[in-house]
Fold Hexosyltransferase.
Amino acid sequence: MPLGRKKGKALCMLMMINILICVLVGVSWKLGHKGDPKGIRIPSKRFWGRMLMSKSFWNKEQQRLDVINNPLINSELFGGSFIALPDWLNDTGPLDPCEADYRVARQVLDYNILPKRFQDFLLHMRCRMYPMLINQPHVCDEKPFLLLVVKSLMPHFDRRQAIRQTWGHAGFLANRSVVTVFLLGRTSSVDNFPDLQEMLNHEAKLHKDLLQWDYRDTFFNLTLKEVLFLEWFSTHCPHAQYILKGDDDVFVNTLQIIDFLGGLSEGKGKDLFIGDVIKNAGPHRNRKLKYFIPESVFVGQYPPYAGGGGYLLSGDLAIRLSNISQEVVLYPIDDVYTGMCLEKLGLVPKKHPGFRTFDIEEKYRDNPCIYRSLMLVHSRTPQEMLEIWPWVTHPELSCQ
């Protein structure tokens, strides 16, 4: 190429670069001028601001977990300079997370006047490891299409039996494999329960569908039941395609659920999480309510979450929830906690009209055809389950 042409090409390139710089400067000036009449604003502080400790115990614990799991901070290098972490992050509590964490009595201002169930939860909030008393390690060997997971209590023998005889019957339904497991902790004399362990052991040998861990089975420990199940699922049942999770007092139209799942594409099924979704909710501050949460423990809004009575999700998502749950501090309300884990994954549960965790209108409760179109209704007694199940399975019932 002649020398003149080379010089001409280089000159054109230089002019284009200059034009680009002028355009960028002009845009920056306009943006700066819009926000500040004096022109472009230059930040006077570092991008990485100072971390302020929350006054609420759960929020502070979550801040600490966020820092531990932040790859930028863990690399100890950001923008070419080391980050000085605040001293309060080193207040880690006992080395063994399953030891009682008595520092909470100092850090939760109204600890001494909180209900006993709250004090117990806070003392053991970091413990996630409890031995298994009853396991069914081979229950998913056949890689079920649908795993029915039922939260139950030791004394609820009648509820479990009614579920086995109706919507939780294991085997093949509508040409799909279905497996049922019941989740239990331990009840004790402290909670005014008799010793039922031998009866439960017999039930487990007879039906081979019970999973039990050695922890106190209380309302605030339902979150613990959730994370222990997710861990079990990741180890013993990771190939189950879908999971229906519910309480032992819900009625489930298993046929309707299988029909719904059969119509899903692979892409839609991967992130599936549907139920009776609650949005724009926050903690209750009334001490008389079951869901009371004091400001000393938590402040903020709840993410969207599905009512814990029952919801449907994919097995793939359950494994991701198990992993991300390690980055979310245990919260005393299990369905809210699951919503927090979904939020960490960048997902939002979807509301489905077939889930009625707050029941249906009373005038429709004895209408057999209503249950044909629903997926889950809360709550029903064992006797009602036995009555309703034939309504959704008998082909002779005509619903127009």
